[in-house]
Amino acid sequence: MSCKATTESVPGHAACGTVIEALRPGQAWPVLAVHEGLSPASRRLRYCAATPRLSPRMIRVLTDLRPRHHEAYAAWRDGRPIGIVRWIRTPALPDEAELALEVVDVEQGRGVGRALAAFAAVRARRAGVRTMIVSVDPENFRVHGWLTKLAARALPDDADRFAVPARALYTALQAAHPRP
After folding, report:
1. Going by fewer Cβ within 10 Å, which terminus of the chain is more open, N or C?
2. What confidence score (pLDDT) does residue 111 get?
3. Residue 69: φ, ψ to 5°
């Protein structure tokens, strides 16, 4: 099954030449490159555990992409991946999807993660997803602050998982970077 590549400039980053493209099923090297660009502390916050390297099984799971069920996108600059976002539809609740993202340390705090999340949210909404579920390490204060601004709500059965309307992810970025 093929995945049509999508390329789009990152709002607020067009001058820097940052674009977002869909990853293809089995395309592991961008996933590995972004993982290598994370410090041990960032990896722990992303995976909620020390993750010095991705196991072959994790790589298979992360690259088992299927349109409308598990999609992943990478932000690229100068031919290098600088961040990855993915959404995975929740089987029991087809209008929900898990959202996960990582941005290499040198690009964190520059809006790449917000742009990736908005990009994925738009694509997920087109596939019928209305709510994104975000799991966050309790010590990831930056992401907790971002989710608070989006009025995300903690799930009743797990205070480290948040429900965010997919539309909120896109409209927040649009408000911060209106197009001329």
Report:
1. C
2. 87
3. -130, -45
Task: Please state the pTM of the whole predicted model.
Answer: 0.86
Kindly write down the DSSP assignment for every residue of 14-44, as one continuous string. GGGT-EEEEPPTT--HHHHHHHHTS-HHHHH
Give the three-state DSSP class for 66.
Answer: strand
Q: SS3 helix, strand, coil % of the chain, rounded to 5?
A: 35, 30, 35
- The residue behind tokens 């601004």 is 149
Strands 93-103 and 19-22 turn out to be: unpaired
Nearest to 37 by CA among 116, 137, 105, 121: 105
- 10 Å CB burial of residue 122 (0-12, 13-18, 19+) is middle
Q: Which residues pair with 165 in a beta bridge?
A: 131
Q: Over the chain (180 residues), what is each successive 10-residue block's mean pLDDT? A: 40 63 97 95 86 92 95 95 96 93 93 91 94 92 89 90 90 59
- C-alpha 116 chain-centroid distance: 6
H or E segment and range at residue 176:
helix 166-176
Phi, psi of 128 (to 5 degrees): 95, 5
